[in-house]
Amino acid sequence: MSELPSPAPSIADDSDDASSEGLRARKRRETRIRIAETALRLFLSDGFDGTTLDVIAEASGISRRTFFSYFKSKDDILLFWQDAHWRAIYDDVLKTSPDASPLQAVRDIMVKHMARYTTEEMVAIDTLMRSSPTLMSRKQAFYGEQEQALFGKLCEVWRQPERRPALRLVAMVSMGAMRLTTQTWNELPSPRKPMAKLLRETFESLKSEL
């Protein structure tokens, strides 16, 4: 498998006159990302259940005790990657021109980020996520949380109060398209088509029915 694209946010270099607090924050962020990247590689190579916290800590160059200063559990690492992926999507939403169509903008951004992964990588990530009881149990709540987050970002770009009902609908429809795409993709026989292509088709089907 090719190396997975990292959804983690980039780390800006601190200036020479950065405060000691800023440097500590940077080191902590770098360590957190290093642990998460190491754990993800181990999960994908050895399986979620087959990867212990001790193995993650050793491979990350830290102690088991230090691990708990950054993550509460292995599930917490998967949530970190999932949250980082959506933060990257929201960052792109905030860069959108207010002259653009909100629904089309969200569609293009979601498809772009999904296209960063090959079908093989998506299968591996999906299998990994499904192996976590915590993630499976909070799946429904997760989509609700992301719908609210997306709505908030849309309101930052399209600021007119009278557009808020429509923007809420865009958030609902977009997350619904993502949920439907994920479910449909999981049910497809191998070889599966790229999820990004399926997501675009889902949005197009929605458009034809409106």
From TrEMBL:
Residues 52-71 bind DNA. Transmembrane segments: none annotated. Residues 29-89 form the HTH tetR-type domain. It comes from the Bacteria. Keywords: DNA-binding, Repressor, Transcription, Transcription regulation. InterPro entries: DNA-bd_HTH_TetR-type_CS (IPR023772), Homeodomain-like_sf (IPR009057), HTH-type_TetR-like_transc_reg (IPR050109), HTH_TetR (IPR001647), MftR_C (IPR041347). The keyword Thylakoid does not apply. Coiled coil: none annotated. PROSITE patterns: HTH_TETR_1, HTH_TETR_2. Residues 1-24 are annotated as: Disordered. This is TetR/AcrR family transcriptional regulator. It comes from Roseateles amylovorans. The lineage of its organism: Bacteria, Pseudomonadati, Pseudomonadota, Betaproteobacteria, Burkholderiales.
